[in-house]
Specification:
The structure holds two protein chains of two kinds. By secondary structure, chain A is mainly alpha-helical. In chain A, 74% of the residues lie in helices and 4% in strands. In chain A, strand 1 (61-69) and strand 2 (72-78) form a beta hairpin. Chain B has a domain at 271-474. Chain B has 20 helices and four strands. In chain B, strands 1-2 form a two-stranded antiparallel ribbon. A two-stranded antiparallel sheet of chain B has the order 3-4. In chain B, helix 4 (100-117) runs antiparallel to helix 5 and helix 16 packs across helix 19. Chain B is globular and about 65 Å long.
Chain lengths: 643, 474
């Protein structure tokens, strides 16, 4: 019951704010949505706490029968296992803080604010449906609901062309992943004859040698399903190739970015991997693919982060990179570490984004770090928050990121596979770059001489409590989550904690092996992180001539990173332009000329014949009589002919 | 001699003469109105008599009464009565309220009823001429109006030519078969291979004479001019009752005496049908006068009805009979709408004058919308079912070409019907029409309701048509 309240109260808030917002007014709409969110958070966090420390019973909550078609069954139900509960607790908690923060952030917005809050709650609800799904169809419902809400929120400032473009981009790029996901779901049904999780997970053993034949190839069905589901996850979780929408998504208001990057949306892909762990664990090649893509993303997004100048864009690429880490962990079948990082990351990434929002709020909407600097005296609280977030992100002891990122790197090393090693080295490089760009951001934003004009500087002020309050709560989370939950998530307590929600094969001892690694492996991430921090201080505080010199000397590398590896340009050339070209031709030649031409031509013929036909209608009786007689002769002749 | 079979016709003729005398003698201010009411009463009386009749052959085989003739007669009377109601107020506003008008209508109806019961070429001709003579006068009834006079004259001259052809055909038939009786003619033509060419020429001439009356192409030339020139209630009358009578007569002649030759005559009917449908669809597109538009529309509709005759089966004949009923009612409703087109006491007939009707008179506009959609054959309205039964009959005997052409011309036709709707609702509104009289509203609503709700309870009409068609085919 409490669980259902946690899931559905955001929907209630969304409906009230969305449908009645105009009549009850923005303030009431805010109150209602936040009230329901707090209710959801209380229920969600309680459920999580009960599950973690009190071993509460885990029982799926059935709701409604939905699709019953021959052997295809899909019911609305709330799955209640550790994985779902963890996600519900995390999502409701962080989403609530973001709701509260938004009150302050959106206070000066020109649009009626109830729409914004309604969308936020919808977003939360969709994510909750996704994580509590008991079958793939309900999961897909949440999946698409998240996509819809992200589209609405990214394009929230709909009179801004760049926001609309970003919203459309997010939608379309996600469609590509979704296509693979849908095919994957179909293949699951094809293999197992069901899309309900209990049925699927119960039949893992008996189908593990099934083959899937297509065009003369024969792959193991699990491998194909694994790859297809992962491609779906790549779209939602912005992995390399399908990541292009994520940096653009910051066109939406900053709380939206925080929600997308921390609690909802991008974590869906990682969650999917963990949820489908019973299948994934039996698909080693699919897992290797996951690890390689994850590792590559972790590294590549970090390089881009080093060259960006937009404060939100840097954090956006850091999300992309951190998601890469999670997939590395999933790729070595250490789903626990993957979810652990997801869990800690949610806190410090929300913290970073909301702090960035606070900075932007302080400098009157400016987002370019080159026009900031010297802010730390004016907004000390935000500055502190940024430090906490960055320490967690950079993986510095004892902040949350330290535990989870270390775990991922150790797990990838401990897996002993080639893809695992690739993930490890990419991750290590990424850790160095992460620390570097994080402190680059801090130094550029808060230190040095103010580069903003004096009008802006005069107005710099600390954000109101409604914004800083959530920051403080998140900062606490980002600080303590690591050592509080380490034992449960990935330590010796994991079997009791997960209670079968995550399935790994019997010969998978990654988590045990982590304890017996060479000493340098455990130390390496910290060293990499500290080196990155030191380098950032050196380059941006003490010897400011280094970055321009670097950019000059290694110009190609700098340009590659600055231009985001030219992914947008490449896609524009490969897909966007040809599609536009094709569409324009189909429209102008195919539709306007050919398809419209046929009916228009017919109509023209009809109108033309009409003019000819009435010409004979002269009004003269003689002509009329003549026509009649012609008719008589004609009929007679015809009759004589045919008889 | 079973002379009681002609009771309805006798009653009508007697009433006609009585009303004529009454009109001459009673010089009251509203004698035209009184005569119209008396005529309506006579129509009602005739309808009751028709309903109470048995069947049989009378007057030495000259006159037949069967379900088919009763069906036609009732429809003729209904069309005439509705036209009459519409004419009362119209004539008054136009300033030619004369008591002769209803009397002429009554005599014309008498002729049509004789046509419906004809079982001899002589009866046929007599009925035809009786209705035509009255119609000439009616067409020219607004004698101060040049167009009305022209309409009457044109109709007279061309009709005379058609009558001449018909009479010539009758004489040829008589000359080559020795009889004018339908039953005997059927025997004479029982062996299609041995029929003499003279008889065939005669049959074609008879066909032409009747095709003229239903204004089938290429004998339609008079229709647009007469429709446009004649006063609106007369046009309505032209469009309904005479068409029913002539079409009924054509059916009877084609499947009765010349029934054995029908397979050979079929190609002629198909040709006329296609030509009518195509011309009706195409020629109407360019029209700006709504009465001319309706003229071409009626030409097209007669083309559709002829498909049923071409099929020649019970279903086909039944289809024609259903078509006639539906056609009469939707035409009546449409002309009621046209009758309301009057601004500052002057009639107007341009389609563009309808602009703004959707706002000025939503009720009337709605009825016209229903009529136009029904004429175009949009489903659920009666016009759709009319075409459905016809096309069904054609498809059942494998006449796909005819059905396909029918559907295609319906599509073209839909254009000009729907354009009328577009003018009413979307064009720059003009000044509202004068207040419409109650009688007109009554006619429009009654016919409009029939057109709209035919689909709810079509069984009585379909059943009656079935019985009538069976009676005709024996």
């Amino acid at each position: 019951m409490m669980y259902a309240i946690a899931v559905f109260s955001p929907l209630v808030g969304c409906l009230i704010a969305g449908l009645l917002g105009r009549s009850i007014g923005g303030r009431a709409a805010q109150g209602v949505t936040i009230g329901f969110m707090i209710l959801a958070a209380i229920c969600g966090v309680t459920a999580f706490v009960e599950n973690t420390w009190y071993d509460a019973e885990q029982e799926t909550v059935p709701l409604l029968s939905w699709v019953v078609s021959s052997t295809l069954h899909a019911d609305w139900a709330l799955r209640h296992d550790t994985l779902s509960v963890t996600m519900v607790g995390m999502v409701t908690f962080i989403a609530t803080l973001i709701h509260i923060y938004s009150v302050g952030y959106m206070a000066h917005d020109a649009y009626p604010v109830y729409r914004f809050f309604s969308y936020l709650s919808l977003f939360t609800f969709a994510m909750l449906m996704l994580v509590t799904a008991d079958n793939l169809l309900q999961l897909f419902f949440g999946w698409e609901g998240v996509g819809l809400a992200s589209y609405l929120l990214i394009g929230y400032w709909y009179d801004k062309p760049s926001a609309c473009a970003a919203a459309i981009k997010a939608m379309i790029v996600n469609r590509i992943g979704d296509l693979a996901f849908v095919v994957g779901i179909a293949l699951v049904f094809f293999t197992f004859g069901s899309i309900e999780f209990p049925a699927i997970f119960g039949a893992i053993e008996q189908h593990q040698n099934d083959l899937y034949g297509l065009f003369g190839t024969n792959f193991r069905a699990y491998e194909v399903i694994g790859v297809l589901l992962f491609i779906g996850a790549m779209g939602k979780s912005a992995q390399i190739g399908l990541h292009t929408w994520l940096p653009d998504a910051m066109e939406g208001p900053t709380p939206v970015s925080a929600l997308i990057h921390a609690a909802t949306m991008v974590t869906a892909g990682v969650f999917l991997m963990a949820r489908m762990s019973p299948i994934m664990s039996y698909a080693p090649y699919a897992l290797a693919f996951v690890a390689v893509i994850g590792g590559t993303t972790a590294f590549f997004a970090a390089t881009i982060g080093c060259a960006q100048t937009d404060i939100k864009r840097v954090i956006a690429y850091s999300t992309c990179s951190q998601l890469g880490y999670m997939f590395v962990a999933a790729g070595v079948a250490a789903y626990q570490a993957s979810i652990f990082h997801l869990f800690t990351h949610a806190f410090f990434k929300a913290l970073l984004f909301l702090s960035a929002g606070s900075v932007i709020h302080a400098v009157s909407g400016e987002q370019d770090m080159r026009k900031m600097g010297g802010l730390w005296r004016h907004i000390p609280l935000t500055y502190t928050m940024f430090w906490v977030g960055s320490l967690a992100l950079g993986g510095v002891f004892p902040f949350a990121g330290y535990y989870s990122k270390d775990a991922i790197l150790e797990a990838s090393y401990a897996s002993g596979t080639l893809s695992g090693m690739y993930g490890f080295w990419c991750g290590l490089l990424g850790a160095f770059l992460t620390a570097f760009y994080s402190w680059r951001l801090i130094i550029m934003t808060f230190h040095g001489k103010p580069r903003a004009d004096h009008h802006v500087m005069e107005h710099v002020h600390e954000s109101p409590f409604v914004m800083t309050g959530p920051l403080i709560l998140l900062a606490i989370g980002a600080t303590v989550n690591g050592f509080v939950f380490r034992r449960e998530f990935i330590g010796e307590g994991w079997p009791e904690f997960w209670r079968g929600a995550i399935v790994i094969t019997a010969n998978n001892h990654v988590l045990e092996n982590m304890e017996h690694l060479p000493g340098w492996v455990g130390l390496a991430p910290t060293v990499a992180g500290l080196t990155g921090i030191a380098l950032a201080y050196l380059a941006y505080m003490f010897v400011p001539s280094i970055p321009p010199a670097f950019a000059r000397v290694f110009r190609p590398i700098y340009l590659l990173a600055y231009n985001k590896w030219y992914f947008d340009e490449l896609y524009d050339f490969l897909f966007v332009r040809p599609t536009f070209w094709l569409a324009r031709n189909l429209w102008q030649i195919g539709d306007a000329t050919l398809i419209d031409g046929a009916p228009n031509g017919m109509a023209e013929i009809a109108a033309g014949s009409s003019r000819q036909v009435v010409k004979i209608q002269t009004g003269s009786i003689a002509v009329y009589a003549f026509v009649m007689l012609i008719g008589v002769v004609l009929l007679l002749g015809l009759y004589m002919l045919v008889r | 001699m079973n002379w009681q079979l002609a009771w309805p016709e006798i009653a009508l003729a007697v009433c006609g003469m009585a009303i004529l005398i009454f009109g001459v003698l009673w010089k009251g201010r509203s004698n035209a109105f009184a005569c119209s009411m008396l005529t309506a009463g006579a129509f009602l009386l005739a309808a009751l008599l028709v309903l109470s009749q048995g069947g049989g052959l009378g007057y030495n085989g000259l006159f037949v009464v069967d379900p088919f003739s009763s069906y036609l007669k009732l429809l003729i009377l209904a069309g005439a009565a509705l036209s009459l109601i519409l004419s009362v107020d119209w004539n008054e506003r136009e300033g030619f309220q004369r008591f002769e008008f209803p009397v002429l209508m009554l005599f014309s109806v008498t002729g049509m009823m004789v046509m419906a019961s004809a079982s001899n070429l002589m009866t046929l001709y007599m009925g035809l001429e009786l209705q035509s003579l009255a119609l000439y006068v009616l067409a020219a009834f607004n004698r101060d109006d040049a167009r009305s006079s022209e309409a009457g004259l044109k109709y007279f001259v061309l009709s005379a030519l058609a009558s001449g052809l018909l009479l010539y055909g009758i004489s040829l038939c008589y000359g080559f078969s020795g009889t004018m009786n339908f039953a005997d003619l059927a025997k004479a033509a029982a062996n299609p291979a041995g029929v003499s060419p003279g008889l065939i020429v005669g049959i074609v001439f008879v066909l032409v004479g009747l095709a003229f009356k239903i204004s089938a192409v290429p004998f339609h030339m008079w229709t647009p001019d007469v429709y446009e020139g004649a006063p609106t209630p007369v046009t309505l009358f032209f469009a309904t009752s005479p068409k029913v009578a002539a079409m009924g007569l054509l059916l009877r002649v084609m499947v009765g005496p010349f029934g054995h030759l029908l397979p050979q005559l079929q190609s002629l009917i198909v040709l006329i049908s296609i030509a009518s449908m195509v011309l009706g669809a195409l020629a109407a597109i360019g029209q700006t006068n709504i009465k001319r538009l309706m003229a071409y529309s009626s030409i097209g509709h007669m083309g559709y009805a002829l498909i049923g005759l071409a099929a020649g089966t019970t279903e086909g004949i039944r289809g024609v009979l259903i078509y006639l009923v539906i056609y009469v009612f939707m035409t009546v409703a449409t002309f009621a709408g046209i009758g309301a087109m009057r601004r500052n006491g002057r009639t107007i007939e341009k389609i563009s004058d309808l602009a703004g009707l959707g706002r000025n008179d939503p009720m009337l506009a709605l009825i016209l919308v229903i009529c136009m959609f029904s004429l175009a054959g949009i489903p659920l309205l009666s016009g759709f079912f009319a075409k459905l039964y016809i096309f069904l009959a054609a498809v059942q005997v494998g006449m796909w070409t005819l059905a396909v052409i029918g559907v295609l011309t319906s599509v073209i036709g839909a254009f000009y019907y729907i354009r009328v709707i577009k003018v009413m609702y979307f064009d720059q509104p003009e000044a509202p029409f004068d207040r419409r009289p109650a009688s007109l509203s009554f006619v429009a609503v009654a016919a409009g309701l029939f057109t709209t709700f035919f689909f709810v309870f079509p069984a009585p009409i379909i059943g009656a048509a079935q019985v009538a068609a069976k009676a005709l085919l024996g």
